[in-house]
């Protein structure tokens, strides 16, 4: 389904650059498309059938944008009271604009990204008309399964990451930990799901280049990760303030898109848009500016700042923290080159406690038997930057961007003595885009090169485990040594588009992606296990069921040898697509052929979407689609098996026995895998409604051949297979008002609603991540709320909030010196799936759903420019959860997890 976004003009100064077209709350998966690299020259050569009535010029410009898919920017004062002639026939964009503006005294200027700025000829340098926000308008010929968010529309009150930005889109669900009261010191980007798929099955692109992490994105840091480095689905942690817009393709994807089974996220960095600017800002929050809602059962642990449980990484409880962000960005022009550059640093300091001990005196005083150690500070840094160059005023499009990010976290394992380590995630990507017409054929080419790495560096490379010593008395001592994972990519994508007739366009092209994977252990890591000699009288206990480490003997040694594991991979794809628009009908039909060299599979993905216009003006339309999307494969599939060759194991049965070698191959084995895929069916309707734009879409996604981790207790063997499956139903609804002037201000109201139901044989999210969670076969039976069902029919644990509502109210007043945004988010009750044990009669696992209450969060942002001049300091205040609602977002083991209470963010900056 799609909708048409008309140009929404605002009276605007250059520097605020906020686009108040009301897409904030709509976020729907249907409607906006980003300008392609073809836009820069197609305005001169490509013709469109225009049907525009005579009358108001502003309405005519909006109609032109709607029917051609171009970006327009103008002040409403410029066209107020002006009229334009009727247009009917075939015109290029420039011809259409020229005829509409003839005799008005207005002129057009084409910008670097293909958009057009409309200004007065007599006052071409007027600040008010110099750099208005670009409004995107979708033409009837473009895709109808898209959502795009402009820079000024991005929600960024709390984290400012992609997940928060995209949370306004109905098809998107965000991990609940991102808003948890327990972990407000965290600055790592949250994971997100699109159309119910796992987070690592989205495709993330920056300036036309894929920046996915294909190493081990589902892995999480925990004490059992001897050979694995924690990953993240995003190869580069993007600062959304450096993005001009973000596009999401979550339905009816073109055949040119592949390598995903969730959705495609296309981010575009800012570029020089005809106006020099520079800004600097400092943003911060503190624990003292935050209200925490904590389950009563966790209040003591939270106040102590250390988990009272047993072992793990710190971060479950963060009562003491401070977060800061420093950002610089600017744009200028040197000759024919437009330059944008941005640099950002986020820092977080959290005070944590590493060791928890049993202390009966502490219990007598506080009622808590566990006493934490002295607290220590942990520092986390997240830096990112981008440099973009655009060649201006050419008859071709050419730009290049260099982006990087680095995330560095100082941490440790709770109750693991001497387990301090440094965890890092780094990314670097160079992307070059070229586009030009050759006769009637449009060529668009992207070439990119990238590096992404996940690393950890431990203080120690020996871990000693004492089996009969409690974790509170030195049961684990040491660390896991230094381990690095790295991927290098070189990618080229080519797309050609040739009009066959006035109503039919043929698109075709291909993609090559070379990947080099490397895992490097810098030193031997030794895991030692100690136990008691039960053949002799046992020494005195130091506690209930606990003995001193000195009373235990060395029983087992595992050496993970230093060295590299390297392999290469070359994936290829080719696609063809026919795009048509004739009278009342429009359609996209295509095929994508993908070679997954990693798994040795060649897959054919058909794509089909079509629709009908319901009126002569082509404002209302019905769309339908049937598509297949093949997902990604990861280094983990083979790495687990290859790691066995670097493991040496020996053990003995008594203190005097000889050590015996153990076969390390009895752990993981590799079997051939198929590429997972999703089949999609959708139906939608859209068009104008009540001085706004409305749409409704129904989507079914059926996931097959999903990779799961299997384990056989009898043989103690692990392996991957394609036993996983899922089914997701989703209904999206939106209404977005046309912005209007009232009481001296501009107002926009945007609403969206989404209902989701998902069944799956495993869970996605914080506790597990699909292929790295042990899973019985999807065809196994389980008990669910008193009924025997297949495991594949269990509801999803998270990323499947049943009903999600968004409403945004955006206001600009005081000659744009004051900008106010109120954002509301509501869910009707979070479902948490629980394993409640095994049925004694049948031996089947039992599950039930714990239903949370509804949640409502109101976030407010106010931005005040202190001076009338465009060069002015500014003050911004973000208030998260204004009403301080106590929102339950999940629960486990009868302990509830609450969203953050009221929290304040303060930003001071200067814009030049």
UniProtKB/TrEMBL annotation:
The record's annotation in InterPro entries points to: Plug_dom (IPR012910), Plug_dom_sf (IPR037066), Secretin/TonB_short_N (IPR011662)
The answer, when asked if Membrane is one of the entry's keywords, is yes
Family annotation (Gene3D superfamilies) = 3.55.50.30, TonB-dependent receptor, plug domain (2.170.130.10)
Q: What superkingdom does the record give?
A: Bacteria
Task: Tell me which residues make up the Secretin/TonB short N-terminal domain.
Answer: 70-121
Q: Name one GO cellular component term.
A: outer membrane
- The name this protein goes by in its record: TonB-dependent receptor plug domain-containing protein
Source organism (scientific name): Nitrincola iocasae
Q: Which residues form a coiled coil?
A: none
Q: Which Pfam families match?
A: Plug, STN
Signal peptide (UniProt feature, chain positions): none
Q: What is the lineage of its organism?
A: Bacteria, Pseudomonadati, Pseudomonadota, Gammaproteobacteria, Oceanospirillales
Could you confirm whether the keyword Membrane appears in this record? yes
Keywords, sorted A to Z = Cell outer membrane, Membrane, Receptor, Transport
